[in-house]
């Protein structure tokens, strides 16, 4: 009885290890390449001129450095800029590494302040800026920041 258990356990272990014996190239060959960058033609199938990238087709990115004027992202960026300006010019706040993000009038504050009262003052200053509907205060109190 004991030997049959040992044989069964060894057989299960052998099957499990055999399934793990496939390398990365085996797995990749089983699945088609569905990535957006996949090409239907391989460089070997194409001619020498076709394999080279074409200069007249520049890379197009969906991510740009500046939002389109008049867009919601431009309005959010402008609001963030106004709030950050208001907080950096406030004399009653000592903020370190201040970051401001906004989305549809909701402003989020990031960074550090020296005292809990400064954290509250920063939220009040942010609320005073035109266009701010609410403030999410993620400032962290760190003495000596």
The CATH topology of the domain at 72-141 corresponds to Histidine-containing Protein, Chain: A
End-to-end Cα distance: 71 Å
Number of helical segments with 4 or more residues:
5
CATH uppermost class of the domain at 72-141 = Alpha Beta
Order of helices and strands: HHHHEEHE
Strand content: 15-25%
User: What topology, given as strand order, has the largest sheet?
Assistant: 1-2-3
Please count the beta strands (DSSP E, at least 2 residues each): 3
Largest sheet properties: 3 strands, mixed
Structure explained in plain terms:
The chain is elongated and about 85 Å long. It has a three-stranded mixed sheet. It has a domain at 72-141: Histidine-containing Protein, Chain: A (2-Layer Sandwich). The protein contains five helices and three strands, in the order H-H-H-H-E-E-H-E. The model has no long low-confidence stretch (mean pLDDT 74). It is of the alpha+beta class.
Short précis:
With 145 residues, the protein is an alpha+beta fold. The chain is built from five helices and three strands; from the N terminus they run ααααββαβ. The chain has a domain at 72-141: 2-Layer Sandwich (Histidine-containing Protein, Chain: A).
Keywords:
single chain; three-stranded mixed sheet; Histidine-containing Protein, Chain: A; alpha+beta; 3 strands
List the helices and strands and how they pair.
Blueprint: H1 2-19, H2 24-30, H3 48-51, H4 72-89, E1 95-103, E2 106-113, H5 116-127, E3 134-141
Parallel strand pairs: 2-3
Antiparallel strand pairs: 1-2
């Amino acid at each position: 009885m004991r030997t049959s258990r040992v044989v069964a356990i060894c057989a299960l272990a052998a099957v499990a290890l055999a399934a793990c014996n496939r390398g990365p190239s085996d797995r990749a060959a089983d699945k088609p390449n569905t990535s957006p960058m996949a090409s239907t033609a391989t460089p070997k199938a194409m001619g020498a001129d076709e394999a080279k990238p074409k200069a007249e087709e520049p890379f197009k990115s969906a991510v740009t450095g500046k939002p389109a004027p008049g867009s919601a992202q431009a309005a959010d960026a402008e609001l963030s800029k106004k709030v950050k300006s208001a907080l950096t010019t406030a004399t009653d706040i000592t903020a370190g590494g201040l970051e401001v993000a906004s989305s549809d009038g909701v402003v989020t504050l990031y960074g550090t302040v020296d005292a809990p009262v400064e954290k509250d003052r920063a939220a009040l200053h942010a609320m005073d800026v035109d266009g701010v509907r609410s403030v999410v205060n993620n400032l962290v109190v760190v003495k000596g920041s």
